[in-house]
Structure formats: C-alpha cells, structure tokens
Amino acid sequence: MILWEVWRERCSRKYEEKHQWQACPIIFRIGFWIIRMCDRFSPTRRSSAEFLKTIGAMGIKHKDPPIQPPKIIYWQSPPGNFVALNVDGACQDGLAAGGGVIRNSYGLHIANFFLFL
C-alpha cells in the first residue's frame, strides 16, 4: 500500500495538469498505512533502540514480545551403570570440526575425542 501511495503521487504529478504537489498529504497517507500495518504485526524479536527511536518519532506505538526468563541448562548425570556422551560440532568457511566427551554417573571424565574434517 505504501508503494501504491508513492506510485499514485508520481502518476498524479506526471499526468494531471492541475496537480499541485504537497509533501504533507503523501507523508500522512504513508504514515496511515504504516500505523495500520504495525497494528497487525506481531514481532517475534525485541526491537533495537534505533528502530524504537525512529518509529517513536513517527508517532507509532511499538509492540515487543515479552521478555522471557533465561532457561537454566546443566549437565545431568546418567543413572547407575550408564555413561553420558556429549558431542558438538561446528563449521565455517568450508572447515568443520567436532568432538565429544564421555563421563560416568559421577561426572568423572572417561574419554574424549575430536576430529577436524
């Protein structure tokens, strides 16, 4: 809709002989569409300070998703006669590597490994 408003203004200037261009009406029409879109938009991430400053200057209310408490993640020991195998890997620019560690039910190190691919 915003591009349509800009296109309509451009065509009016080009093809209507008596068209007098004024900046405010098109800015208000575009602002109207931005506000309508923001009312229907549900963000999944929090907005940056710069973005909030920009939309605040335009008079647009922002909606950020609620802040979620951090999830605490920790190692859990395996039951009795079992061992735990934790592995991870990464790649970047065509290089890859991976590795892991094996621990007993007391959390004591049994073995580890790594590999560059």
From TrEMBL:
Highest taxon above the source species: Eukaryota
Naturally occurring in which organism (per UniProt): Thalictrum thalictroides (Rue-anemone)
Q: What is this protein called?
A: Uncharacterized protein
